[in-house]
Amino acid sequence: MLGYVKAFKPEMKIKDYELYRGVYCSLCRALGRNYSPIAQLFLSYDFAFAAVLRLAVIHECFSFSQKRCPYNPAKKCMICSEKNELDYCSHAVIITVYYKVLDNLHDKGLKSRLIAALIYPIVRLMHKKAARLAPDIEKIIGDSMKAQTETEEKENVGIDEAAHPSADALGKIFSLGFDDDIKNRLYSLGYMVGRFVYILDAADDLEDDIKSGSFNPFKAEFFNIKNEECRRNFAEKAEGMLNLTHSNALDALDEIEKKRFEDILENIVFDGLVHSGKAVLNKYSESLEKGCRK
Description:
By secondary structure, the chain is mainly alpha-helical. The protein has helices at 14-34, 45-57, 84-105, 110-133, 135-152, 159-175, 180-212, 228-255, 262-293, and strands at residues 64-69, 72-80.
């Protein structure tokens, strides 16, 4: 996950934002507790969303208490007492980062390979522990990365086929450990959010991937992305795909029985995803709008 799944603060109530930040800070502490302070550098709002979602549906009661941030002692943070789900998400963070680093080691961009080579020894040690503590997550993400590699080696891969491995993995991570209907509903939401993130990331990286020769499912159709008409057509197509996926994600969220954090989840899925989508697609449409105003 790549930082696209986060709350849209202007539309949040203060109390909801404090709770959201509380889950984020609690996940940060879980990473430090289970791995090391270095692991906290890999924290992202994407996995904070996963933690909020899983905490929203569990039956167990938990509370928040104020504790001082170890990196800013003058500031107090809201810390969640429920450790099992936070530990679960911390393992998922480390395993995901490990496979992302492995992927970057074979990237065609020199900068990505150098950064990956520098952090690989540290991430590898963390991953050994995470794989031992969470073998189910290890299998899900490992199988997903293998399937993704096999898909990208094919010719003429469409966006649906390309997005499936990562979307399927996120659905399984969201729903792992739950039973019956709630499992299926969490999987559906995870799948749609994962699909949305994959499409958005592919759109965000299209120009760079064309330059470097890296895989991108949009390249075959929009290889001439510098052309204004091509940019306009791409922005419209990507927006249509994102809107459809976003609508399905909202439907999936509505089907989930939430015991808490309902307003936070609606903000992230409704407002947050829309804001992230606009931030990426604007770079393809803003230049056209500027040209029209000249």
